[in-house]
Amino acid sequence: MGTPLPKLTLDDYLRWENEQPDKHEFHRGEVFAMVGGRRVHGRVVANLTAALISALRGSPCQVFSESMKVQPADDTILYPDLFVTCDATDLRTDMIFRAPKLVVEVLSPGTQAYDRSLKFALYRQLASLQEYALVDPDTCRIEVFRIGADGLWVLHDMSERDALTLASVGCDITMADVFDGVEPAEPT
């Protein structure tokens, strides 16, 4: 039996992570490797990023995707598939964002349970977060959670609509644009 790895501090993790070729998330001293993305995952992230960049041009908000770190708590660093921040401090940071208003995760079979449970719970620690969207490229379904005036998160199922509405950034993206280029994978 191997010796357990010592828990890292946030500073140790950041020094180590910045030297790694692959991405790793960090939570309470532990490091978790990110799985490689599939074609449909990358396609949806690219489609959403392009649509949001276009929609937000000229606004005080910016879109970031996949390789940017978000820190929802002192002991946690996550890599959202994409997010939007309008926070002046975030827009000056070089490495770690702390105030996104929208986070989007594109689901995969291996990460779906994590994205729906623990990862969503971690993101909810962000006072700035107004919307959390889960996009499933395999079923072309989209669920958007929005925080209400009462502080409760409410599910808005966009799956049967013609457009994805992201109220936090005042943006509608047609489902055809979200899932453009997403065809079933060839059997392996």
Number of domain units: 1
CATH architecture: Alpha-Beta Complex
Shape: globular
Q: H/E order of the elements?
A: HEEHEEEEEEHHEEEEEH
Mean pLDDT over the full residue set: 92
Radius of gyration: 17 Å
The biggest sheet amounts to: 6 strands, mixed
Number of strands: 13
| Residue fraction in strands | 25-35%
For the terminal residues, how far apart are their CA atoms? 36 Å
Proportion in helices: 10-25%
Read across the widest sheet, the strand sequence of neighbours is 3-6-8-9-10-11
Spans of at least 5 consecutive residues with low confidence: none
Number of helices: 5
Structural write-up:
The protein has five helices and 13 strands. With 188 residues, the chain is of the alpha+beta class. It has one domain: tt1808, chain A (Alpha-Beta Complex), CATH 3.90.1570.10. The strands form three sheets. It has a six-stranded mixed sheet with strand order 3-6-8-9-10-11, with helices on one face. The model has no long low-confidence stretch (mean pLDDT 92).
Characteristics of this structure?
six-stranded mixed beta sheet, globular, five-stranded mixed beta sheet, tt1808, chain A, 5 helices, 188 residues, alpha+beta
Question: What's this, in brief?
Answer:
With 188 residues, the protein is of the alpha+beta class. The chain is 22% helix and 31% strand. A six-stranded mixed β-sheet has the order 3-6-8-9-10-11, with helices on one face. The protein has a five-stranded mixed β-sheet with strand order 2-1-5-4-7. It has a two-stranded antiparallel sheet with strand order 12-13.
